[in-house]
From TrEMBL:
<dbReference type="GO" id="GO:0005524">
    <property type="term" value="F:ATP binding"/>
</dbReference>
<keyword id="KW-0067">ATP-binding</keyword>
<keyword id="KW-0029">Amino-acid transport</keyword>
<keyword id="KW-1278">Translocase</keyword>
<dbReference type="GO" id="GO:0006865">
    <property type="term" value="P:amino acid transport"/>
</dbReference>
<dbReference type="InterPro" id="IPR018449">
    <property type="entry name" value="NIL_domain"/>
</dbReference>
<dbReference type="InterPro" id="IPR045865">
    <property type="entry name" value="ACT-like_dom_sf"/>
</dbReference>
<keyword id="KW-0472">Membrane</keyword>
<protein>
    <submittedName>
        <fullName>Methionine ABC transporter ATP-binding protein</fullName>
    </submittedName>
</protein>
<dbReference type="Pfam" id="PF00005">
    <property type="entry name" value="ABC_tran"/>
</dbReference>
<dbReference type="GO" id="GO:0005886">
    <property type="term" value="C:plasma membrane"/>
</dbReference>
<dbReference type="InterPro" id="IPR027417">
    <property type="entry name" value="P-loop_NTPase"/>
</dbReference>
<dbReference type="Pfam" id="PF09383">
    <property type="entry name" value="NIL"/>
</dbReference>
<dbReference type="InterPro" id="IPR003439">
    <property type="entry name" value="ABC_transporter-like_ATP-bd"/>
</dbReference>
<dbReference type="GO" id="GO:0016887">
    <property type="term" value="F:ATP hydrolysis activity"/>
</dbReference>
<dbReference type="InterPro" id="IPR050086">
    <property type="entry name" value="MetN_ABC_transporter-like"/>
</dbReference>
<dbReference type="InterPro" id="IPR003593">
    <property type="entry name" value="AAA+_ATPase"/>
</dbReference>
């Protein structure tokens, strides 16, 4: 649905060239929720804005659906942009217009009749659960409600793609979760492809299917969310994993332990089974859990524990064999 090929974007600042995006290629499949995560200044916004050509790439091509946007005239591009909705961190609503009029705005631009506009706006208000707030002005809404207006407006023209620019960064954790649920719901109901940028691992973990990690304008790691975050390779990816894995004290904690240190990874329903207990029970091995996460990535439960096994080599090997036989990944730390 979205294909970025060798995208570069540089800016000239005071006679110097700043390379915000360096040779990025990626493909987002139809119906997928794809996240791009990176620290501040990594080039996320610039890359996202290249997708609908709010920023013109210095070189490279952007294709959405079967249309290469980088090859279009300004008039053709205007029409194609209707297939791409966008939401923003600070909502970008028209402060002097009501919720209804904000949502109607892109429909008015598309020159729909008044009756068509009213019907569509009613549908959208229902979709984002703002029927009770249609006649309010943005200043009378909470942050979460403002973002719901942003989402309804972005979906007004039935786009194929929704671009989300740090859509939850200005919201508290509870409101963030309600907006993420709404995005999941929209993705499931409408089959819309979602490309989002964020600096929050929680956003990626909650709703994305695949993720790309961006650092200094380059993609440094990309793949299924489960795979990338359970086996992070790049230091920046590890930083983001640590945001939710609480492994800050890791190094200190693991130093000087006498037993064998192992990282065990569970994926799927195994996560909730007493596998570790069953594996050690027939042996004399004792264990201590030194660090652990048990959570979900989108719909999939997973767990990753660092454990110390204390016992004879033969018994410890027997436990490791039993864990692997149950389908766990076990590796030395
Ligand atoms: N219009 C511009 N003119 C000059 N430099 C820019 C412009 N926009 C972005 N940059 C530079 O490009 C780099 C990437 O910026 P960008 O805003 O894309 O990063 P980001 O990952 O979205 O960061 P943040 O999360 O802080 O918004 C930065 O070094 C930034 O200073």
């Amino acid at each position: 649905m979205i294909k970025l090929h060798n995208i570069r974007k540089s800016y000239r600042v005071g006679g110097l060239s700043v390379e915000a995006v360096r040779d990025v290629s990626l493909t987002v499949h139809k119906g997928e929720i794809f996240g791009i995560i990176g620290h501040s200044g990594a080039g996320k916004s610039t890359l996202l804005r290249c997708v609908n050509l709010l920023e013109k790439p210095t070189s490279g091509t952007v294709t959405v659906g079967d249309m290469e946007l980088t090859g279009l005239s300004e008039g053709q591009l205007q029409r194609q942009r209707r297939r791409i909705g966008m939401i923003f961190q600070h909502f970008n609503l028209l402060s002097m217009s009501t919720v209804r009029d904000n949502i109607a705005f892109p429909l008015t631009l598309a020159k729909l009749s008044k009756a068509e506009i009213n019907k569509r706006v009613d549908e959208l208000l229902k979709l984002v659960q703002l029927e009770q707030h249609a006649d309010k002005y943005p200043a009378q809404l909470s942050g979460g409600q403002k973002q719901r207006v942003g989402i309804a407006r972005a979906l007004a023209n039935n786009p194929d793609v929704l671009l989300c620019d740090e859509a939850t960064s200005a919201l508290d954790p509870q409101t963030t979760n309600s907006i993420l649920s709404l995005l999941l719901d929209i993705n499931a109901k409408l089959g819309i492809t979602i490309l989002l940028i964020t600096h929050e691992m929680n956003v990626i973990r909650s709703i994305c299917d695949r993720v790309a990690v961006i650092d200094k304008g380059e993609i440094v790691e990309m793949g299924d969310v489960l795979h990338v975050f359970l086996k992070p390779e790049h230091p920046v990816t590890r930083d983001f994993v640590d945001q939710v894995a609480d492994s800050g004290a890791n190094g200190q904690l693991l130093r000087g332990r006498k037993g064998r240190l192992l990282r065990m990874t569970y994926i799927g329903d195994l996560t909730y089974e007493p596998i570790l207990y069953n594996a050690v029970k027939p042996t004399g091995v004792e264990f201590a859990i030194l660090q652990g996460t048990v959570s979900r990535m989108k719909e999939t439960p997973y767990g990753q524990l660092i454990v110390e096994l204390i016992g004879s080599d033969a018994e410890v090997e027997r436990v490791i064999g039993a864990l692997r036989a149950e389908g766990l990944e076990v590796e030395a730390v």
